[in-house]
Amino acid sequence: MSGAYAQARMNHHISSTPRKALRGPDRPIALRQEYITDTKTTLVLSPQGDAQSATAYKVKDQDGRTLFTASGWKYNSGSCREFRDASGLPLFELHRKISLKTAWYITLPGGDGEVDVPLATGAPRLAPAFGNFSISLRNTAAAASETNSEADHQLTLVVERHGRVLQSFDVIDGDRKVAEVCESIRHNDKLALNPSSRRGHRPALDVVIAPGVDMSLVAVIAVIASDSVYGSEST
């Protein structure tokens, strides 16, 4: 598939919001400060198995090295994705709850999003399609500085879905796009370009991150986007 054709497909927006150019935030953004990147970085989110597999995703760098994994079930009463680093140590858990107010909770390993204070919460946005949501978090990069006010510690990122055939998700911080998640042209054996081929389709996603942003945080956002949009008939 030509790059021009793919771009034309991706520009056939679900969202009518004008798209922003990628640029770094005006201060670092992180759940885990050790994963803040100092250069523009591209990762690949690769689904493992089918939409109901226990081993769900791997996140790799451009050299094919695994940085993060996400395991756990999407479809059950205790829906939870457990994120681990390259060595297998747990980083945090992503819990899902059917609610219009708060649909996702990110907690420390072994945490309960409904009992413990979460690291971050996510909520669907009023938009014409799944895959539009927001993530609110306590920015640990700001919290590390005593000069910042409590308001500076709190942060909400908005995720906008674009594209009717090839999907793309912009991660917006204020007036800046700080990350982008999109269907990968390079890392998919096939692309689902019509409704019948999209049923059950779980493509690899390119994850492009601006300098100053936590890679593990964007990996969680990419998993939420993938779980919300792919792997079912309602894409």
From TrEMBL:
Residues 7-26 are annotated as: Disordered. This is Tubby C-terminal-like domain-containing protein. SUPFAM superfamilies: Tubby C-terminal domain-like (SSF54518). Belongs to the LOR family. Pfam families: LOR.
